[in-house]
Design brief:
By secondary structure, the chain is mainly beta. 4% of the residues lie in helices and 55% in strands. The strands form 6 sheets. The protein has a 9-stranded antiparallel beta sheet with strand order 18-19-20-21-22-23-24-29-28, with no helix packed on it. The chain has a 4-stranded antiparallel beta sheet with strand order 1-27-26-25, with no helix packed on it. The protein is globular, with a radius of gyration of 21 Å. It starts with a helix and ends with a strand.
Length: 412
């Protein structure tokens, strides 16, 4: 009798602890233009909001885009606005105002996707390209990225950090001259009334730049993520607690999760995951459910936006739930053969699951078919080992998406 009751409880609570796909939907572009998505945020109203980029079919006109999506992955509304950015970040200002941080602009929108306000950010020294944005503990906005130096006769890209107040008014900025042409600041965390900026000098090293709240530099230290400093090309950073933080890093051809203690510049733990392309993301609401995701086995590309000739490509969506030490609870791969997926963002959702968005190219026909996708997966649990499973899920585009591998590994 007790066993039957336990089984019934497991069935009734299956949605909460399931590792299954809740939905997997792809939206194919058509002659009206190409929609790309690169960030997503969850509203308290139960909807998801996606920012991205729209271009016409000939790729001669580019605009920013916003998409509102319900809890089942259905598109409710889409809009375009004049500013455009290949990278944009979505943040909440209160419960009903969206802030879009673009290449060199801010855009305010309400939850009905009405544009409320727009503001350009001007720098006389740099052409700005922002990559990330976060609110500090005092609700000031810290924006990081790179600046294209106007005064340098040769192309040079420097890491930049900007600080704005609650009204998005400029407070301070910092630029750092790096050794190469493609240097950038990709993330920031806040600790003990200090800012820690994570700056990448591709194929060289990762530099942690500590500043006070006025962006005065306190120290510059080299992080050793994998025992070697070279070939770190991308990263996401999140604070785990008051003692340590976690880095999701693209190192050479490997995706790795590394944990660091504050003040120690050598990784405490490092775990390797997939060999692939550097589209990936790290997110959690609480540290009991940390999710990472990205693109694995990337092998191809198109020559240009206008060129529809095919250079063969194929990749899979990879999602994983990890513990605070970077060890994995489970790792899953999704996607169909002959489709190239680029994961743009992974979002931990309020119901304990994970949502991933990105863009895709379908190679099953001779003509390129582009589009974007969204996949929602349950968070699962961390107390079992599952290997060798294969199941199928049918998306709204009429094709079966194969779940190639499900691994659930828990170590105590």
């Amino acid at each position: 009798m007790i066993v039957r009751i336990l089984i019934l409880i497991l069935i009734l609570t299956g949605k909460l602890y399931s590792q299954n796909v809740e939905f997997f939907k792809s939206y194919q572009n058509n002659d009206s233009g190409h929609w790309e998505v690169n960030d997503v945020i969850e509203g308290k109203d139960g909807y998801f909001y996606l920012s991205g980029l729209w271009s016409n079919d000939s790729c001669t006109v580019w605009q920013g885009s916003l998409i509102k999506m319900d809890s089942l992955g259905n598109v409710v509304k889409k809009i375009k606005y004049p500013q455009n950015s290949f990278i944009s970040k979505l943040l909440w200002l209160g419960e009903d105002t969206l802030l879009i941080v673009g290449v060199n602009y801010f855009v305010w929108a309400d939850t009905g996707l009405n544009i409320v306000r727009q503001k350009e950010i001007i720098s006389f020294e740099y052409s700005l390209a922002f990559h990330n944005a976060k609110f500090d503990p005092d609700s000031n906005l810290i924006v990081v990225g790179c600046g294209y130096n106007r005064s340098n006769p040769n192309f040079h890209q420097d890491p930049i950090m900007y600080k704005f107040n609650k009204k998005m008014e400029y407070i301070a900025s910092l630029s750092v001259r790096g050794p190469g042409q493609w240097d950038m600041c990709l993330d920031v965390i806040f600790y003990n009334k200090e800012y820690s900026f994570f700056t990448i000098f591709p194929y060289s090293k990762t530099i942690l730049i500590r500043t006070d709240t006025n962006l005065n530099v306190l120290s510059r230290d080299t992080l050793e993520i994998t025992g070697e400093q070279a070939y770190v090309t991308y990263l996401n950073v999140r604070a785990i607690d008051s003692k340590k933080y976690m880095i999701l890093s693209k190192t050479s051809n490997d995706l790795c999760v590394a944990t660091f203690e504050y003040g120690n510049y050598q990784a405490k733990t490092v775990h390797y995951y997939v060999n692939g392309y550097p589209f990936f993301s790290l997110d959690f609401i609480d540290t009991s459910r940390i999710f990472i995701g990205g693109t694995s086995s990337f092998r191809g590309y198109y020559k240009s936006c206008q060129d529809s000739s095919r250079i063969w490509g194929e990749s899979k969506i990879v999602l994983a739930r990890v513990r605070t030490d970077g060890d994995s609870c489970w790792v899953k791969y999704y996607g169909r053969d002959s489709v190239e997926y680029w994961v743009s963002r992974v979002l931990a959702t309020r119901d304990g699951g994970v949502l991933a968005i990105g863009n895709q190219f379908d190679f099953r026909d001779s003509v390129r078919k582009s589009g974007w996708f969204v996949i929602k997966v349950g968070g699962g649990i961390c107390d079992s080992v599952v290997t060798g499973l294969d199941s199928r899920f049918r998306g709204n585009d009429g094709y079966a998406f194969a779940i190639h591998t499900i691994l659930s590994i828990m170590r105590y």
